[in-house]
Every structure is written in structure tokens, then in C-alpha cells.
Amino acid sequence: MLLFRPVNQAELDLIIQTNWKAFPPRLLGQPIFYPVLNEAYATQITREWNVPTYGIGHVVQFEVKDEFIQKYEVQKVGLDHHLELWIPAEELEEMNQHIIGHIKLVSTYK
């Protein structure tokens, strides 16, 4: 499954440190890792949240093996294209092990 994720600069720096192969552990108080199912939604989050909050935001794309990711139910959290998966923070490392290839930077907004 092809997924997208809005990230701030600090999270992107941590992804780069893994050679673009993994997402960093969630911070305290962040119980869910939520990749989104389309680039438009990731871009919206980046432009409306990350840019105003951090001054810069990025959208990354990554693919996860279907046999792993299919156990998570798609969540609709607003408009029809506001689709995301809710992966418990304690399962993020396992998800990272099922990433196919590398995480890719799709766009940057300031």
C-alpha cells in the first residue's frame, strides 16, 4: 500500500538519519502513528498545520507490504479524502520493518 505522511523538519531529519528507511518513534503523548492514504490530504495537513507551526513542512511517500498494513482499518476523519490509518505507537517499529524500499520526499512547503 502506498502511503503519505506530513512531517516537520525535525521528523524529516530523523528519517534521513535512518537512510530514508524508517520513521522515528512517537514522542511521549503521541499514541498513534497516522499515515494518510493520499497526497492531497498530506499536503493539506502540511500546509495548514506544519507550515504555520514550524515554518516549514514536508510530505513524504512510502510503501508498506499489504500483508502487514491490511490489518489496520481505514479511518475517515473529515471530508471524503481525509483517510488515514491509525497504527499504535508500539507497532511503529514493526511497520518500519515492512516498508518497501525507501521513504521519499514528495514536497516541501514554507
Please give the alpha-carbon distance between the first and last residues.
28 Å
* Low-confidence sequence ranges: none
The CATH architecture term is Alpha-Beta Barrel
- Give me the count of strands: 7
Major sheet: arrangement of strands: 1-3-7
Write the element-wise H/E pattern from the N-terminal end onward.
Answer: EHEHEHEEEHE
C-alpha geometry? globular
CATH class placement: Alpha Beta
Number of domains: 1
Work out the strand percent.
25-35%
Q: Which fold name is given in CATH as the topology?
A: ADP-ribosylation fold
Q: What's the number of helices?
A: 4
The assigned structural class equals alpha+beta
Protein architecture, described:
There is one protein chain. This protein has 110 residues and is of the alpha+beta class. It has one domain (2-109): Alpha-Beta Barrel (ADP-ribosylation fold), CATH 3.20.170. The protein has four helices and seven strands, in the order βαβαβαβββαβ. The protein has a three-stranded antiparallel β-sheet. A two-stranded antiparallel ribbon has the order 2-6. A two-stranded antiparallel ribbon has the order 4-5. A hairpin with a 6-residue loop joins β4 and β5. The protein is globular. The chain starts with a strand and ends with a strand. The model has no long low-confidence stretch (mean pLDDT 97).
